[in-house]
């Protein structure tokens, strides 16, 4: 009876059809970061109305090269160069205000000016659930790394941007949000002071100039105030208003995801597709295409297992030819062959609709190219990606071999410009992951991207 009643009720209201709204296309890192997400976002932003960052903080370093000018973005969305595209930083991002303004000022010198309430390089910052990174979170990040090194003989190799401590504050409900900064400053100050006391009881060596940090924050609060909006309403209007192309830019990557990555050698947010909904306050039904970005090989910054790493001349060649140096920390990236086990795993979580395969040009000079296709333990294939790091450290990788194309691909602009051996490599990767490759990157700049369909 209850079911029938519910059905009857539904029937009587069935003339109310929910408008599903505009879809949000998503760009996500499919490896350990630095796959070229910035370049893909910039390319897609040329046809977008809104580009949103949804998680991470200024641990991210996203490079965009347009008209021979190079930009590095850390908190600003990588679509910001496109003057018709509004930029939005969502609630899932942890923001270090001095870092944000430093980045804004640096980019103004390069000709990117922020205008509020205008269609020209506008930036909107979400008011609601926005956790703020303080200088002392960055100091605590450094102290925790020292403690890990002393206790465990190794650390995580974080970017020391305060990401872990800030997300930990969010989870333990001691974090401070932009909406708190926008409200009563004396209430905000006393919560900051309590937080400092908590940290000092854990780390007696922690020195914090709390009054001067608060004074700086008061100035930043006024500078940021005109940019702040309620993000849930902002995104709802963007989705349900006039037709719009909306883009979400992931930071970090699947294998650095707090839940699915190579824990504990990960970052502290969800860098997989779920982080887009929680980091912007949007329904899953409004997620459209999900683009995974992968290099044609693999890199990793920081500590942790890396099964296809090449600690040899191949690794050095990839590092030097690929200029594999971290954008945020300047550390050399570790390099190795493409690993299809991790790409398939990232696809299981994210449901990629297409892949961007970047940096194919870096492989141009190799005689032979290998691709990791399976992991083995004690000579037996394992049918899953190991969650435990001691196990992952031990796996033996099964490779598929390809002979190199030994041709410069950097001028290729369409599929037919690529040598057949490079085409063969791309098709193999595509078939193995089971996801179409939509773009192939052959250089740093915006135009060095072959679009396949
Ligand atoms: P992100 O963090 O994913 O945005 O990537 P990063 O900017 O940290 O690192 C990617 C690096 O590769 C940057 O220096 C890019 O300019 C560069 N890059 C991106 N795509 C290509 C490509 O197809 N070929 C070459 N040679 N470089 C590329
Ligand atoms: P983009 O967005 C590469 C790595 C750090 C470290 C670990 C934890 O440019 O791809 P954290 O400071 O987040 O606590 O560091 O995660 N890491 C990245 N590596 N690219 C990134 O971002 C990264 N963000 C974090 O090197 O190993
Ligand atoms: Mg990067």
Automatic annotation (TrEMBL):
InterPro entries in UniProt: Adenylosuccin_syn_GTP-bd, Adenylosuccin_syn_Lys_AS, Adenylosuccinate_synth_dom1, Adenylosuccinate_synth_dom2, Adenylosuccinate_synth_dom3, Adenylosuccinate_synthetase, P-loop_NTPase
Residues that bind GTP: 33-39, 61-63, 333, 359-361, 441-443
Gene Ontology molecular functions: adenylosuccinate synthase activity; GTP binding; magnesium ion binding
UniProt xrefs under CDD domains: AdSS
Binding site for IMP: 34-37, 59-62, 159, 173, 252, 267, 331
Catalytic reaction annotation: IMP + L-aspartate + GTP = N(6)-(1,2-dicarboxyethyl)-AMP + GDP + phosphate + 2 H(+)
Binding site for substrate: 327-333
Function as written in the Swiss-Prot or TrEMBL entry: Plays an important role in the de novo pathway and in the salvage pathway of purine nucleotide biosynthesis. Catalyzes the first commited step in the biosynthesis of AMP from IMP. Plays an important role in the de novo pathway of purine nucleotide biosynthesis.
PANTHER family, alphabetized: ADENYLOSUCCINATE SYNTHETASE (PTHR11846), ADENYLOSUCCINATE SYNTHETASE ISOZYME 1 (PTHR11846:SF2)
Name of the protein described by the UniProt record: Adenylosuccinate synthetase
Organism: Sinocyclocheilus grahami (Dianchi golden-line fish)
